[in-house]
From TrEMBL:
<dbReference type="InterPro" id="IPR006042">
    <property type="entry name" value="Xan_ur_permease"/>
</dbReference>
<feature type="transmembrane region" description="Helical">
    <location>
        <begin position="432"/>
        <end position="451"/>
    </location>
</feature>
<feature type="transmembrane region" description="Helical">
    <location>
        <begin position="530"/>
        <end position="550"/>
    </location>
</feature>
<keyword id="KW-0812">Transmembrane</keyword>
<keyword id="KW-1133">Transmembrane helix</keyword>
<feature type="transmembrane region" description="Helical">
    <location>
        <begin position="187"/>
        <end position="208"/>
    </location>
</feature>
<feature type="transmembrane region" description="Helical">
    <location>
        <begin position="457"/>
        <end position="477"/>
    </location>
</feature>
<protein>
    <submittedName>
        <fullName>Xanthine uracil permease</fullName>
    </submittedName>
</protein>
<keyword id="KW-0813">Transport</keyword>
<dbReference type="GO" id="GO:0000324">
    <property type="term" value="C:fungal-type vacuole"/>
</dbReference>
<dbReference type="InterPro" id="IPR006043">
    <property type="entry name" value="NCS2"/>
</dbReference>
<feature type="transmembrane region" description="Helical">
    <location>
        <begin position="277"/>
        <end position="295"/>
    </location>
</feature>
<comment type="similarity">
    <text>Belongs to the nucleobase:cation symporter-2 (NCS2) (TC 2.A.40) family.</text>
</comment>
<dbReference type="Pfam" id="PF00860">
    <property type="entry name" value="Xan_ur_permease"/>
</dbReference>
<feature type="transmembrane region" description="Helical">
    <location>
        <begin position="109"/>
        <end position="125"/>
    </location>
</feature>
<dbReference type="GO" id="GO:0005886">
    <property type="term" value="C:plasma membrane"/>
</dbReference>
<feature type="region of interest" description="Disordered">
    <location>
        <begin position="1"/>
        <end position="23"/>
    </location>
</feature>
């Protein structure tokens, strides 16, 4: 990636010079902690922390590469920025999964802590670059962090719906037809166990050459999947929580504890969609926008947390926050404080295999983006080995995360924006980020606080977060040339994906006509139903198959079609003038 030219309007500070004389670890540490330069360096901290105007132009700080010498304060500050940028994406999935399974507050709080701790530990592995044998590595050697895969979140929703539908999880139906779900922690254990065995698929894919993977999963396939993941999460979680909750109160039943959101016994409980809920979510949403307009670079990288903070201050003052989750949360916690019965749910195997294919595709794109913002060449054997090491670390991380009682953790894309803004791609900052995540996870009261955030505030923030995932999919799709073949594949894939989004129950009754299927056949039917009912899975499969079987367009055919399109545009313009 080329450096910024000297003719640019925005000037750069000098880049830090590499130290030609390597020193011992002890002397480096002593220099860091005993000198002003070791603590602060020459970095412009005013630029990092002072508010800015949308039209302002300022002198940018120097760029710090992956192994450049980094001042201690800058390393800590940048690490905190990365941790804050990840925070919303790490706490939202366990909250959503726990809510879907009706788990108690203590278990939900633990799941948040486990997600933070697991992300910190496995991010350290991903940032390493451990030589294995031959040309194989473990880790990218970049500032690459991992977090809960949103693909898992979308698929888990369909899996849990199937478990409640077939009686694996308990539920009751009231006289008016309202279905109330009971707590089902065993379902989470089944998800973890299925994820654990399916992780070997991504481990195996990591030993294929990256160019083969990129040929099988081009942007038209990966972009479609990412677009559908973000879009489905907006509809199934984000916007529902914005209205008051996604635990069943969104149906506005006439009886039961979900007549009001989040439940009838909650502080300031109201019907779903009440203007108070909409306003609180909108307040958090607008706070994100204002932070982007006027905030300092530090705050811009933590805009999601700013939105949560503003929403929590207002809802706390208005009495919407239930502090019981904070008081009941332990002061210190760690992994395995709560354990789940690890089991395998056979109908979930096929969907989870597809999830790991999706995380492989996402990892390749995110590692490429990380290399670009880190000014690392994105071609050649060194880059290929970073892709291979990153995908392998992703697969092993999926296996280990299940043992950590966490759903699959994959490479996060949010941190590439932090690198781009702060101009710091140094792995030391990444290690501080991991330290902050582990500390946040071990402090149980922090998880209790996150769990106390009102649904409407969380929904206003997660709607923006999930929409950002959808926009990332659109960005990937912008790399295709939109030939007739590309448009045909995209239209066919989105027919299923968008159809699933708009009518989620379309495939629910597909096999109802089969009488008395045996256990194995019933499991197959449920597996197929889960795949067909998950927008990103079915649209990704359609795009993948059509991309492999449809012949490439001939250059002349593209030119002829372009001529026809231009002629049609001219004809429309002439007709419009005549009228």
């Amino acid at each position: 990636m080329s450096h910024v030219s000297t003719s640019s309007v925005t000037k750069e500070q000098p880049s830090p010079a590499a130290n030609p004389n390597p020193r011992s670890v002890f002397s480096v540490v002593r220099q860091k902690v005993t000198t002003k330069h070791g603590w602060f360096g020459d970095y412009d901290y005013r630029w990092l922390c002072l508010p800015s105007l949308p039209t302002a132009r300022s002198k940018q700080p120097p760029f710090y590469g992956i192994d450049d010498e980094l001042p201690l304060v800058l390393a800590i500050t940048s690490g905190l920025q990365h941790a804050l940028a990840m925070l919303a994406g790490l706490i939202a999935p366990p909250i959503i999964l726990a809510s879907a399974l009706m788990l108690d507050s203590d278990t939900s709080s633990y799941m948040i802590s486990a997600s933070l701790i697991g992300s910190g530990i496995l991010s350290l592995v991903q940032m390493s670059r451990i030589k294995l044998w031959g040309r194989y590595y473990l880790g990218t050697g970049l500032l690459s962090v991992v977090g809960t895969s949103f693909a898992t979140l979308s698929t888990a929703s369909a899996i849990f719906n199937m478990m409640y539908a077939n009686g694996t999880c308990p539920s009751t139906t009231a006289a008016d037809g309202t279905v109330t779900r009971g707590p089902c922690p065993d379902a989470y254990g089944m998800l973890l166990g299925t994820s654990l065995i399916c992780a070997f698929l991504e481990i195996g894919l990591s030993f294929l050459h990256p160019r083969i993977l990129q040929r099988i999963f081009p942007p038209i396939v990966t972009g479609t999947c990412i677009l559908m993941i973000g879009s489905s999460l907006v509809g199934s979680s984000g916007i529902l929580d914005w209205g008051g909750g996604s635990n069943g109160c969104q149906a506005r039943p006439t009886s039961g504890i979900y007549q009001l959101c989040p439940t009838v016994g909650s502080p300031h409980a109201l019907p779903w969609g009440s203007p108070q809920f909409i306003g609180l979510g909108f307040l958090s949403f607008v706070s994100i926008i204002l932070t982007e307009l006027f905030g300092s670079p530090f705050l811009k990288n933590a805009s999601i947390i700013v939105g949560l903070a503003v929403g929590c201050i207002v809802t706390g003052a208005a009495g919407y926050i239930d502090g019981s989750t904070i008081t009941s949360a332990p002061a210190i916690t760690f992994l395995w404080v709560y354990r789940f019965k690890i089991n395998v749910y056979p109908p979930a195997i096929l969907p989870m295999l597809a999830v790991y294919v999706s995380t492989t595709m996402e990892a390749i794109g995110d590692i490429t983006a990380s290399s670009e913002v880190s000014r690392i060449p994105v071609e050649g054997e060194d880059f290929d080995s970073r892709i291979q090491g990153g995908v392998l670390s992703d697969g092993i991380g999926g296996f280990i995360s299940a043992l950590f009682t966490v759903t699959p953790l994959s490479v996060f894309a949010q941190n590439n924006g932090v690198i781009s803004v702060t101009r710091c791609a140094n792995r030391t900052a990444g290690r501080w980020c991991c330290a902050f995540l582990i500390i946040f996870g071990c402090l149980g009261k922090i998880s209790g606080f996150f769990l106390a955030i009102p649904n409407s505030v969380l929904g206003g923030v997660t709607t923006f977060l999930f929409a950002s995932v959808a926009v990332s999919g659109l960005r990937v799709l912008s790399y295709i040339e939109y030939t007739r073949r590309d448009r045909f594949i995209l239209a066919a894939a989105l027919s299923f994906g968008v159809g699933d989004l708009l009518v989620p129950t379309i495939f629910t009754y597909l096999f109802d006509g089969v009488n008395n299927p045996n256990k194995g056949l019933q499991g197959l039917f449920e597996s197929i139903t889960i795949v067909l009912s998950t927008p990103f899975l079915i649209s990704g499969i359609v795009a993948l198959v059509l991309n492999l079987i449809l012949p490439q367009d001939m250059p002349q055919q593209d030119e002829d079609e372009e001529v026809v399109n231009v002629a049609q545009d001219l004809e429309i313009q002439v007709l419009g003038r005549e009228r």
